[in-house]
Amino acid sequence: MSHKVAVLGLDCAEPALVFEQFRPTLPVLSKMMDTGMWGRLRSCDPPITCPAWMVMMTGTSPGELGIYGFRNRTDYSYSGLGIATSLWVKHETVWDVLSRNGRDCTTLGVPLTFPPKPLRGNQISCFLTPGPESNFTYPPTLKNEITQACGNYIPDVRDFRTNDKVSLLKRVFEMTDNHTAYAKWLLKNKPWDFFMMVEMGTDRIHHGFWKYFDKQHPRYEFNADLQNCMQDYYKHVDASLGKILEDIPDDAWIAVVSDHGIKRMIGGLAFNEWLIQEGYLVLKSRPDKLTPIGKCDIDWNKTKAWGDGGYYGRLFLNIKGREPQGTLAPENVEAFKQELTAKILAIKDDKGQPMNSEVLRPEKIYDKVNGIAPDLIVYFGGLYWRSVGSVGGANPQIHTFENDSGPDDANHAEEGIFLLTTKARMKSGARGPGEKKGLHIRSVAKTVLKLQGIEPPEAMGGAAFDLTGLA
Hints:
With 471 residues, the chain is of the alpha/beta class. 30% of the residues lie in helices and 19% in strands. It is globular.
């Protein structure tokens, strides 16, 4: 028997908040836990919105997708960087598989769905949508239909890295209400067997307000107007989920899921400044002010490696025969990777204590490595530190507490959430199997297809979750 399946995504929702700290104030999510299965969901490496949601919906890895973050090298030149879009996704998504099996699908705001692509049903693209003037729907006629009913679409919070926190908080709540109205309209007015939405507000509230909530944050700041905003927003999201459930049938499967979690950000590690100090990266001239590495005058004939900034560090090698002015002989690459890894792991924090960083190799963590992956992936300080790619200024420091891309209080954590139940179970109070251990993001796609009674394609990785106790 085939059931409808609704996947309600909360980007960056943190398991410690949903399952523990805030649970008493989240009646909808708490009821899902009581009546269904739930657990921490191990994200992909790296645990980044792009590619994590597509890892979840294709059952593949970032290596197979060839997507390692928002920005990716598109060739081996020094300037070839591209922003990932839906056109980069070459693997079948859950809604692709269901569409060709005659199922009606609706997606709203799922990352890496801009520009929207054809499916059997309706699609509204994601937070990467440039604005309401864009062609953000499939079919194109849906745009006029839904904006007339629900107002202009808000794909993301405008200027979420700002110091004007009061205005930002207002915009986060407004965006969530906008998405809730869009979801309810789609559920009521369009046929669906599979419905999926992703709310970005959980991510934006974490990055914008974590230091007002987390008293262990090194820059914790008491603010009477903001101290409760984290809990207030989670309660608002829980109530929004309740409104959306009103338009979902009792026998439909309901999953609430996040792509990764969150943790306080202690600071940033200036990756390229460190490479310069170690003699691996050489500039022809040093910029007077903080400057993105891509805008610096690099002496490539003397450079062996350079890095990129973001929530994790990406390190690239300047290899002879691969990069235009490569300096590193291919036969020396392995030894050089080992040398770099040892030195990175030895970097101390600002207090001289071990950082407990981690260095990953794409060829070892992925079955396939498509596109142009970083040569090394670095989690500084267990992801409590971000990677800062910019260089310059009078007094360069390896440890920095100012983010070069704007105010940001938090970094991504390796585990998100997964909850699964039905409204019928929630209404009856049936006891669910409870917490499940060892859940992985790659298994979600096959689980959805299993609930729909559809055989997954061979290319889809992961193994469907054990649903014993829910049938």
